[in-house]
Design goal:
The protein is mostly beta strands. 12% of the residues lie in helices and 36% in strands.
């Protein structure tokens, strides 16, 4: 092979690795062993909403590139929004040369005491994928396959989103489309008439405060599981209403 041919082959190999496994520094954790199944039909209707508090996953930017996590991975909802790479390994049901798939955690796969195949029971590290994503790297008839997985940084389009819910006595904010580590570990809110107020995780990525903030301009401070914090000042106007969604800065 000529020097030019060798260089071209090398660059092509590097490009393929980047497509399959991401850019250098993209990973958050090392590779671990796990297992994957799928739920719902190819259109993903059954994957909408769920234990993380997200709604229509298409409208919120997650689409079908999602998974429900077993108890060992879900961490009582703290893992909602985390991104993973998975590779199908050591099974005749793996698609040849499929490479890695990339998903966001949007739901919980509950343990079962009656299922003949309790894949999501502790201490198993299990991903219940959308059918669309399962078929990216495995054959439908396989149903369940062993995988290698690792945490990676989330690559999201646009800013972090804050959906306002609740009533005049308490406010529940769904935080989604989070880049970087993806997992939100802390949220604070500041009104135009208050200092920073600590919010509490209510469930999934819904964050709660009992402070009266109706009619105030709002800012948010979000800390991810890697310790990084991003502040979005005055992104919510004083005329905000429940049901509205506002966009802030992202990691």
């Amino acid at each position: 092979m000529s020097c030019l041919g060798f260089l071209v082959s090398s660059f092509m190999a590097i490009a393929i690795m980047h497509r399959a496994f991401g850019q250098p520094g993209d990973q958050i954790s090392g590779w671990e062993d796990g297992r994957a199944t799928f739920y719902g039909d190819i259109h993903g209707n059954e994957t909408m909403y769920g234990a993380c508090g997200y709604g229509n996953l298409f409208e919120q930017g997650y689409g079908l590139e999602t998974a429900a996590l077993s108890t060992a991975l879900f961490n009582d909802g703290a893992a909602c929004g985390a991104c993973f790479q998975l590779i199908c390994v050591n099974s005749k049901w793996c698609r040849p040369a499929a490479g890695a798939i990339r998903i966001t955690a949007t739901n919980f796969c509950p343990p079962s005491s009656t299922s003949p195949n309790p894949w999501c029971n502790p201490p198993q590290k299990h991903f219940d994928l959308s059918q669309y994503m399962f078929l990216k790297f495995a054959i439908y008839q396989g149903g369940v396959v062993p995988v290698k997985f690792r945490r990676v940084r989330c690559q999201k389009q646009g800013g972090m989103k804050f959906q306002m819910k609740g009533n005049p006595y308490w406010i529940l904010v769904l935080v989604y489309n989070v880049g970087g580590a993806g997992e939100v570990s802390n949220v604070k809110v500041r009104g135009s008439n208050t200092g920073w107020i600590q919010m509490q995780r209510n469930w999934g990525q819904n964050w709660l405060t009992g402070s009266g903030l109706v009619g105030q301009r709002l800012s948010f401070q979000v800390t991810a599981s890697d310790g990084r914090t991003v502040e979005s000042d005055n992104i919510v106007p004083p005329t905000w209403a429940f049901g509205q969604t506002f966009e802030g800065h992202n990691f």
